[in-house]
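Review form for a predicted model. The reviewer records the input and the model, then writes brief findings.
Reviewer: anonymous (R2)
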Amino acid sequence: MFIKIESKDKITRGEGSQYSIDNYLTKNMVGNISVAVSHLNGKIEKTKNLESDRIYYFINANAKFELDNEIIHVNDGDVIFISKNTFYSIEGKFDAVLINTPAFDLKNEISEM
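Model under review:
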């Protein structure tokens, strides 16, 4: 199988004025992995995914993650792996390649209340 997705074919999903995601490869295309570029300028409250492990590769970044009550600063070129069922929050500014396996499904995303 071979799939090429051009930038003009991405599907952008907004998460408010501070966060957006450009989806390139989705579960509807291949089923077992998704690839997106996420953009943050602000804060994402604590969230976790019940099914997907997640990898962020930071392209332009000056941000901090809070994972398991630990603060982790990220910059350009850094990579973070977050296993499923791990709550985390993010604050700052970044563009990052975001890979979910299995593929992202919004129904598996849980925010901490």
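Findings: The first strand starts at residue 11 and ends at 14.
Further findings: DSSP finds no helices and eight strands in the chain.
Recommendation: see findings above.
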